[in-house]
Amino acid sequence: MNDRFLRACRRQPVDCTPIWLMRQAGRFLPEYRQLRQQHPMLEMIKTPELAVEVTMQPLRRFDLDAAIIFADILPPVEAMGIQIEFVKGEGPAIGRPIRGMADVERLVLPAAEEIAPYTQEAIRIAARELADRVPLIGFSGAPFTLAAYLVEGGSSADYALAKRLMHQEPAAWHSLMEKLAQLVGTYLRAQVRAGAQALQMFDSWVGVLSPADYREFVLPYSRQALEMAQDSGAPVIHFTTGTTGMLETIREAGGDVIGVDWRVDLGAAWSRLGPEVGIQGNLDPLTLLAPLPKLRERAAEVLRQAAGRPGHIFNLGHGVLPDTPVDNVRALVDEVHQQSKRP
After folding, report:
1. Angle between helices 170-194 and 219-230 (to 10 degrees)
2. How far apart are alpha carbons 289 and 327 in whole angstroms?
3. Could you read off the pLDDT of 223-240 as tens digits, one per residue?
4. Which residues of 276-311 are buried (b: 16+ CB within 10 A; e: fewer)?
5. Is 17 exposed, middle or buried (0-12, 13-18, 19+ CB in 10 A)?
6. Is position 265 annotated as part of the catalytic site?
7. 159 assigned to active site
8. Single pTM value for the model
């Protein structure tokens, strides 16, 4: 197996910098779009064979160093009694959003095998198919990002409802986050038992908070979920966006590898995080729309900032955009490998 991704997660020497891309299995691939025309999103997620097919699609095109299971962060909350649907053109919608303690109290804590069992089965199948190729990454949304969706009822511009609950009904907020931390930690461990060899916890919306609010209302629950995941023995990546102002606090929450976005110099971020963790990132996804010379230049700059330190995993600061040219992704993957070859 190509294990350079796992070695980098553990800050061990590698022959070249590993690269995988968030949303590498997604809308920029014509074969994905063709499949998506035939199947609604939830059907693709909940049909293990379809999820495995999408997981494998980018590996047939690019020399990536890891696969990530095709899934979504929201379906696992269905096991708590939450109803979700994906509305075309609008994104996810939550039935009966959480607005107070009574709503929190009706949430159940499911057994591990009840949390997205279709994704756990997809992981079992994909792990068998990938056994002699590259590692498989499992993932979950973080407690805060899941809570934000559940309280807002879907996506939001300012997360006013979530922040209002946080400040006006702190007991309800803490109870909600405790339940979500248990769900996330349990789910991540179940994915390792199913065959995932590494994990990522996505806290995509936590950058809307102040450092003080993060420390009081989020950090204990992210730490709880991450510690539960790390008990599995698999390396865990803690990914956030918009958190340049509180990287040290994000590090305090935990994770073997910290994912950073493009809003911070990678070298400066690593200096702040310290040598005890790996770092993942951090090319701006829009750079993949640039002409190839500029794309190669920006990739070289990220590698220069990493300075060959053990523990760097090349990735974007967020997911691949739908209109990204396939050839640009191939060029980036090849460029990272070629430029980072160790003597």
Report:
1. 20
2. 10
3. 999 999 999 999 999 999
4. ebbbbbbbbbebbeeeeeebbebbeebbebbeeeeb
5. buried
6. no
7. no
8. 0.97
Q: Give Rg (Cα) of the chain.
A: 19
Residues in the chain: 343
| pLDDT in the model for residue 343 | 79
Number of CB atoms found within 10 A of residue 93's CB: 16
Angle of helix 326-339 relative to helix 292-306, nearest 10 degrees, comes to 40
pLDDT at 166: 97
- Which one is catalytic: 7, 11, 149, 187? 149
The answer to whether 258 touches 277, Cβ cutoff 8 Å, is: yes
State the residue for tokens 């994915």: 191
pLDDT tens column, 295-341:
999 999 999 999 999 999 999 999 999 999 999 999 999 999 999 99
Selecting among 10, 36, 99, 263, the annotated active-site residue is 36
**Residue position matching structure tokens 């709880």:** 224
Calculate the CA 59 to chain-centre distance: 18
- 72 annotated active-site: yes
In this predicted structure, the answer to whether residue 89 has a pLDDT above a threshold of 70 is no
Selected catalytic residue, list 4, 7, 32, 72? 72
- Give the model's pLDDT for residue 262: 97
Tell me, yes or no, if 99 is annotated catalytic.
no
At residue 155, the pLDDT reads 86
Active-site hit among 3, 10, 27, 124: 27
Asked if 189 is an active-site residue, the reply is: no
Backbone φ and ψ for 281, nearest 5 degrees, come out as 145, -165
Cis peptide before 282 (omega within 30 of 0): yes
**Which domains are delineated in the chain?**
4-339 (3.20.20.210)
- Render pLDDT for 193-228 as a digit per residue (tens, 0 to 9): 999 999 999 999 999 999 999 999 999 999 999 999
Give backbone dihedrals phi and psi of 111, rounded to 5 degrees, phi first: -70, 160
As a whole number, the mean pLDDT across the chain is 96
- Residue in the block written with tokens 């310290």: 274
> What is the distance between the alpha carbons of residues 18 and 279, in angstroms, rounded to a whole number?
12
Residues 23, 189, 296, 298: which is the catalytic one?
Answer: 23
